[in-house]
Amino acid sequence: MKPLLTLLLLGAVAAGCASSGHLGDATGAVGPTWTLVALGDDAPEAEATLTFGDDGRVFGTTGCNRYFGSYALADDGALTLTGVGSTRMACPPAEMAQEAQFFAALNGAQRVVVTGDRLALGTSGPPLTFRATPGASADATLTGTVTYRPRIALPPDAVLSVELLDVSRADAPSVTLAETRVGTDGAQVPLPFSLDYDSADVEPRNRYVVRAEIFDAVGVLLWTTDTAAPVLTQGAPRDGVEVVLAQVAEADPAGALVGRSWRLSEIREASGLTLSYEGEAPFTLSFGADGRYNGRADCNRYGGAFEAGPSGSLRLSQGLSTLAACPGPSVSEDFFEVLNDVDRYALADGRLTLSGPGGALVFE
């Protein structure tokens, strides 16, 4: 039987006595983008990256999804990761398998050691080995702003992600030359950004674009690039680039939510811990055209009224719930703790994410 809850993402990974500061610049760990070259003794199936920002944030890709969180590095290289979350896009089996290995190793991360252009992430299992990505010796900077047209305020803890990509080959994945992820700290659009890159990586014949996304604090995608902004070559700008985003939520909230039954796949706690629900008991949610919602939570049923706004806001009034004692372990308490705090929704890639101060629930 499958375990009821499977740890997917990281809550807190503590090792040694880490301080709140970062590793000194002499180590070279902070700043560059590091590309995975080995998972233990195995070569990676897809490009995965790791970046320690100088603002205390860690981010990168697993070869499938993007991840992000906070870190601290002690003077002796002891590592602590906290509040790590991830996007949850489905990928080919080989990439999903790599992602599972990557997160399992990251979950046991204990120490960082940099030797030349290599970074070794010591873990409780097989180590992760990275190489400094071309462009890590940045000698040029691309600047611009990220904005959107609707007059909608961002949540104060929103996170901005910006990437510089080589998209020259239509038959191959884009190549990341630079990326940054920063907290907005209450700021509103337009949001300024700067990307440091190595000018030697830029080929005049190639095509380059900037892509940006804005997430909430628990990793729910709020705004994304629907038309990438050309940069650097073929007459495109190097400074003052404007990246215009589109809202992820549907324009017609009632029409977007109603008409189907959503089944729980993840519970994301406010602490940053994400749990994948794999239990046999159903946790479902349906929205009706009459403004009421209902569903099952293990062996119980619940329901109430809802109001959805065009900006992705959502208000759930607490209704009635049966109180049967369900057999075996249950995540009902965790489910309702997050559900009762929901104030926002997002629809993307066939998934519905309900989020609020208490965390997020992801349905499929």
TrEMBL record:
The keyword Signal applies. PROSITE patterns: PROKAR_LIPOPROTEIN (PS51257). It comes from Rubrivirga marina. Keywords: Signal. Residues 32-123, 257-359 form the DUF306 domain. It holds the Pfam family META. The keyword Mitochondrion does not apply. The lineage of its organism: Bacteria, Pseudomonadati, Rhodothermota, Rhodothermia, Rhodothermales. This is DUF306 domain-containing protein. It comes from the Bacteria. Residues 1-18 form the signal peptide.
